[in-house]
Amino acid sequence: MRGIPQYGSVKPKDAINRRLYKGLLIVETAIYRVFVI
Question: Is 30 among the domain residues?
Fold first, then answer.
């Protein structure tokens, strides 16, 4: 099961959280690349 299970069905809050999580993941990846290089 992907996403946050406790929300169950897709809700606006879930969509917002997914967007924030994706943004956070991009930032973490960028930071990781900077540290590796």
Answer: yes
Residues 35 and 28: beta-carbon distance below 8 Å:
no
Low-confidence ranges of the chain (pLDDT < 70): 1-12
Number of domains in the chain: 1
Report yes or no: 7 and 13 within 8 Å, Cβ to Cβ.
Answer: yes
* Mean pLDDT of the residues in the chain: 76
Characterize 12-37 residue by residue with b for buried, 16 or more Cβ atoms within 10 angstroms of its Cβ, and e for exposed: eeeeeeeeeeeeeeeeeeeeeeeeee
Q: Residue 23 sits in which domain range? A: 11-36
